[in-house]
Specification:
It is a single chain. The protein has one domain. It is globular and about 40 Å long. It has 9 helices and no strands. By secondary structure, it is mainly α.
Length: 153
Amino acid sequence: MSHISADLTNVYLVRPAFFVIGYSDETSFPLFPQSCRGLKVLVDLLDEDFAEQSELIVHALNGIGSVFELQGPTSTKNDFCRLFIREGLLDPLSSALLNVMASRGDAAADMKRKIIQILLVFCQVSQSDIHVRNALGTRKVVRRSYLAQRDST
């Protein structure tokens, strides 16, 4: 995905983020994030440098949260969790949690809440889905979650 990469400036990354997130919020286009590689774009936006691109990370978290809210008769949270795992969400999500826990302020508190809500969805789904459980239980994700919890106390 060459049009969403870390070497682009913030201006060029924010516009595609608004586009993807705008369509992931629309109820008339519930399949857009899945069919147009929108999930991969959201994961790539979440993988940006937190210090320089915190606005993109906020947009990515909003988009990911809205995808889990788009439940139709044929799509469940299990399906979205598996799709996000395939796109590699848990690694940048746990990294973002570590970075956010080290930050202070209202924006950081809101981002902490969103990341924890997304991780909670994965935890709930992992109770019945072995694929999600195995992805959530990797050493890197568990270690980062532990470090983030330890740093919060």
